[in-house]
Amino acid sequence: MGKRTINVKMVTDVDRVANFLSDLVSSIKDGTVCVQKGADFVTLTPMNDIEVEVEAKQKKNKESLILELSWKTRDDNADESIDIFKISSSQPEPEPEEEEATAEVSE
To answer: What is the phi/psi pair of residue 5, to 5°?
Structure first.
């Protein structure tokens, strides 16, 4: 997966910010967050374990709130290991190579 980034910096009113945050909450609950600026977009898929960092600052005549959310994406190789890993009450049939090696040891 290549690197995709969208940065937005603007001055807007409280209602518009509240709408953005409401849309963000809904998107996170839906499991997909698509951030779009013009024709460019980045689609994110939040996972269950989300790291949350909040920083609130007050200075003389300026206040700020920084919210950072991050998570690890699903490892595409994880499904392969699930296919390899198995628990059962019976032994698997030996592969032909294993069978020959066992026969040599038995003799």
So the answer is: -140, 140
How far is it, in rounded angstroms, from Cα 56 to Cα 40? 30
Residues 10-51: tens digit of each pLDDT: 999 999 999 999 999 999 999 999 999 999 999 999 988 899
Q: Which residues contact 80 (CB under 8 A, 6 or more apart)?
A: none
Alpha carbon distance 96, 67 (integer Å) = 58
**3-state SS class at 18:** helix
Task: Say which amino acid occupies 84.
Answer: I
Alpha helices by DSSP H, 6-48 = 14-30
Contact 12, 34 (CB under 8 A): no
Token readout for 3 is 């690197």
